[in-house]
């Protein structure tokens, strides 16, 4: 059974168009960058997500290696990333990986499978500074700063924005019981100094 690169590309493009995002934000931005052929941006956004275990990003990164989008073409690495996404139940990754297998030697497949078995997800760095302005029960204001993962910042920013829209107070309690109160303001400072607000 012969599978052309064109048929593999068509499968990848259709699958990316239909794939449900695992994470909003960087994943969506990465997928959009890939679709507009901005492979440098797609790779910058997708690789960290794939390395953290995001199945959609693993699928996309596998396709990028398969097609040489933003990286040198590498069927072994493509197979590895597709295999990792397939192991998480991404049907498109299973189909694309199985089509790709016809282009690989048994030794290449064995190498890709070995790499997939040895792969371990990387934890997201706690390099975003969360800054929260609280009003305590006695009416005092306090500022709490903590280094957190990017997804924790995103979650709190989204929660605060929703509470503001619904005109409901958002109350936080940190590990230290002294640090509890109604959230007055929140923002995150990314490692590059960019300030993100709700």
Multimer state: single chain
Rg, nearest Å: 21 Å
Count of the separate structural domains? 2
Query: In percent, how much strand structure appears in the residues?
Result: 15-25%
How would you sum up the major sheet? 5 strands, antiparallel
- Poorly predicted spans: 1-24
Helix count? 8
Helix content: 40-55%
Could you write a compact summary of the structure shown?
The chain is built from eight helices and five strands.
Layout of SSEs?
Elements: H1 5-18, H2 26-35, H3 39-51, H4 55-67, H5 75-87, H6 91-100, H7 106-118, E1 128-135, E2 141-148, H8 150-165, E3 171-173, E4 180-189, E5 195-196
Helix pairs in contact: 1-6, 2-3, 3-4, 4-5, 5-6, 5-7
Could you characterize what this model shows?
Strands 1, 2, 3, 4 and 5 form a five-stranded antiparallel sheet that branches. With 198 residues, this protein is α+β, with helices and mostly antiparallel strands. A hairpin with a 5-residue loop joins strand 1 (128-135) and strand 2 (141-148). The chain folds into two domains: 5-118, no CATH class; 128-196, no CATH class. The relative contact order is 0.11. Helix content is 52%, strand content 16%.
Labels describing this entry:
alpha+beta; 5-stranded antiparallel β-sheet; 8 helices; 5 strands; disordered N terminus
């Amino acid at each position: 059974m012969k599978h052309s690169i064109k048929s593999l590309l068509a499968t990848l493009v259709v699958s990316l168009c239909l794939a449900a995002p695992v994470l909003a934000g960087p994943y969506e931005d990465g997928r959009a960058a890939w679709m507009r052929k901005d492979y440098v941006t797609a790779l910058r956004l997708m690789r960290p997500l794939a390395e953290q275990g995001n199945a959609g990003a693993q699928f996309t990164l596998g396709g990028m290696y398969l097609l040489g989008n933003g990286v040198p073409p590498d069927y072994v690495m493509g197979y590895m990333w597709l295999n990792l996404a397939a192991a998480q139940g991404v049907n498109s990754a299973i189909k694309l990986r199985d089509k790709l297998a016809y282009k690989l030697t048994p030794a290449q497949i064995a190498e890709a499978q070995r790499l997939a078995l040895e792969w371990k997800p990387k934890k997201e760095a706690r390099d975003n500074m969360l800054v929260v302005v609280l009003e305590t029960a006695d009416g005092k204001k306090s500022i709490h700063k903590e280094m957190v993962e990017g997804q924790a910042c995103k979650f709190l920013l989204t929660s605060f924005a929703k509470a503001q829209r619904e005109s409901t107070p958002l109350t936080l309690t940190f590990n230290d019981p002294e640090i509890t109160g109604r959230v007055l303001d929140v923002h995150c400072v990314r490692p590059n100094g960019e300030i993100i607000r709700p």
